[in-house]
Amino acid sequence: MLAGSIRNSFRSPNVSRLNSLVSINRLYAHRITHPKVAPPTLGLPRQRSTMITPSINTGAPSPALFSYSSGRYLYNEKLRFEERHVQFKVNALKEIAASAVGRKQVVHLEKLAEGGFNRVFVLTMDDGLEVIAKIPYPLTVPKTYTTESEAATLEFLRLKGIPVPRVYTYSSTSENTVGTEYIIMEKAPGQPLERRWFDLSPKERVRLVTSFVQIELKLFSIPFASYGSLYYKDSLPQDLRADLYNTAPGEEENRFCIGPSADYMFWRGKRALLDLDRGPWKDHRDYVRSVGQRELEWTIRYGRPRQNDFPHNTIVKGEISPDAYADLLRKYVSMSPHILPGDRENPMNHATMRHPDLNPSNVFITDSCEVSCIIDWQHCSILPLLLAAGNPPLFENPDAEPPKGLVKPSLPENYDSLTPEEKSQADELHRRRMLFYLYMVFNGRDNKAHLRALRYPLLAMRQHAVERADRQWSGNVITLKGALVRLLENWDQLIADSPQQVECPISFDKKDVEEFLVVEDQWFKATILLEHWRSILDGLGQDGWVRHESYAQVVETNKMLKEEWISQAEDEEDYESVDKFWPFQDHEEDD
């Protein structure tokens, strides 16, 4: 059976974590066959490529301005392109941009970049000044709130000394002369960090990390009174506003308030039709509960029986009822008052804003390698510190486990005897370890509140529970249950700060847990195998995104992978588990 084949794919002790560098060329040279071990992935997440279009000055605008052109999708491509098609009036956008910066006209317009939620244009004025126009895709939700919150967040952060682009003007409705929502903003000064990311000298790394930690210190020091997202007061009705601070803000800050969460998951698909608690929240426990309650409401109304994709359908077989997931979400909701420390005044519940997607393409630096600008604050939220805490993707630990002590990394003792390829991998691992080390060191020196949160008991366990309850029903009943089982197993430590003994509100049968842990182990191994396939497919994105130049090869490799696994089928059940539920092919989606 294929389940046995999957188990046999993990005989090596080195598959517990996929975090160190691997040569993509070596992966491609490897024959596409039943893998004996899942190799490590690249440490840095792949960023969507940018595409520069011809300048648009006169005549009819190019259709490429309105359509996605920065990559392909291996599956459900038609839907992905439809979600990213935005028609708008080019001349109206030019006129508004020129007026916003006091110029006569735009003489040059280019499509600069396309990300997961927006299309970005650079507009050049008659005197050479360049500004950015950011236009959200139709898939971007919440409508209106996303643009309102991002515009307010950028202005507020500028007032607090955070290096972000200045907003010149914006519209949070498509009922305007342009025909779509937009933000016109300053072009970020400096150069994108991604251009220098792999070539920073040791001194430049120190300057980068210290300047970034200083920026985070300013963010962590803001005394927000509630959880949610930031808005201008006049953009929200009174009943959706919460005070910015517990004390009266200054005159400039008095324009702002905390309102409903602009987090995508509170509005995704049919959630926008549900009567949900989207904030703002005064109590941290209300926020934690709302995450699970939201998914519970959606699952009850719209969840349908699902079979997992291959290879996970060899671990948990057949159709799974959404009722099983709903039951787990109810357990999560019961546990929600205890996941974070109970006292609202506990420093670990401090309302904290952090960047929602900090990667090298969103950070700009000076020539001396200090942070000059941080862009893309869309969907930014204010969360309890324990849920906001963590190493940004820029400075993540590349190793399977956190180090027991803070020891400066060094190259391996046998470095001089390594092959050039092995030296390259060792250099990259050392570079990433150094960035992690520096981030921890300078947090310890400058941002002690964050370091205390990073060292808080059961931090990862608490975060995992909320993150896994935040996921839409997909047939997966393993990851949330695993998070709940671990909270239960660590109950006494979880409530150590409670002034009185509290009985755990959930339970699992002991034998059920023993059997579950075996299944969970196999589930995680199947996930490792899936990530191995993604690496073979040129780092395939979660939504199927792939580079233009790799698309034809990825299509062929995907076909070979599927055929290889189908050839191992021993019966009709095996065959269908692969053929009908191959993870990288067109499939129906729920919203």
Automatic annotation (TrEMBL):
Gene3D superfamilies given in the database record: Phosphorylase Kinase, domain 1
GO molecular function terms listed in the Swiss-Prot or TrEMBL record: kinase activity
Pfam families: APH (PF01636)
Keywords noted in UniProt: Kinase, Transferase
GO CC field: mitochondrion
Region feature Disordered, mapped onto this chain: 398-424, 571-591
Domain Aminoglycoside phosphotransferase: 110-237
InterPro entries for this protein: Aminoglycoside_PTrfase, Kinase-like_dom_sf, Mito_inheritance_9
UniProt keyword Transferase, yes or no: yes
Designated name of the protein: Kinase-like protein
